[in-house]
């Protein structure tokens, strides 16, 4: 089978439900990490191969998505990605990835004389760190309304004051 992008559409099949049900039941008993062996079985009695944990995780994600009625696209990636491939994976523009490289936020290699390449591991590590920073920022800026003793009017006035401060900083910065 060629190593190219392939999209799989969900089927209206009880087989997907059976596979997902099996995986769910096994996970409830043995945990999320497959402690037992999963095998792909061929037509002959002794024709089987053990499925590695990484393929088990991919299989589970694919089955869950298909069962939910979503299409799944498998896109084989090299260990070194172009800046455009890195941008696609992050969901940002290529110039943003180039800026991350220029600012030494994201390491890159230049195997030839022209193209900068990003290691897939570095990109995935950056994506995980970025998501953790975003979640921390959300937690730090969230308000537990049970702890707020001020009335809605007091809170509205505080928001107006903060907006005015931000506007003043922007106008001072733009000068």
UniProtKB/TrEMBL annotation:
Origin: domain of life: Bacteria
Stretches assigned to the Helix-turn-helix domain: 80-131
GO molecular function term, any single one: DNA binding
Pfam families, per database record: HTH_17
NCBIfam families on file: excise
Protein name: DNA binding domain-containing protein, excisionase family
Originating organism: Jiangella alkaliphila
């Amino acid at each position: 089978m060629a190593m190219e992008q392939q999209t799989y559409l969900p089927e209206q099949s009880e087989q997907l439900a059976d596979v997902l049900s099996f995986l769910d039941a096994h996970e409830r008993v043995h945990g999320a990490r497959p402690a037992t062996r999963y095998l792909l079985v061929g037509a002959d009695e002794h024709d089987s191969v053990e499925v590695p944990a990484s393929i088990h995780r991919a299989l589970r994600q694919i089955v869950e998505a298909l069962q939910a009625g979503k299409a799944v696209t498998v896109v084989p990636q090299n260990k070194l990605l172009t800046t455009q491939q890195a941008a696609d994976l992050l969901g940002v523009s290529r110039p943003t990835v180039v800026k991350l490289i220029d600012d030494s936020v994201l390491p890159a290699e230049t195997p030839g004389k022209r193209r900068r390449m990003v290691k897939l591991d570095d990109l995935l590590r950056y994506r995980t760190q970025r998501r953790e920073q975003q979640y921390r920022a959300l937690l730090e800026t969230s308000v537990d309304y049970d702890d707020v003793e001020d009335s809605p009017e007091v809170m509205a006035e505080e928001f107006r004051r903060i907006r005015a401060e931000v506007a003043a900083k922007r106008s001072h910065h733009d000068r």
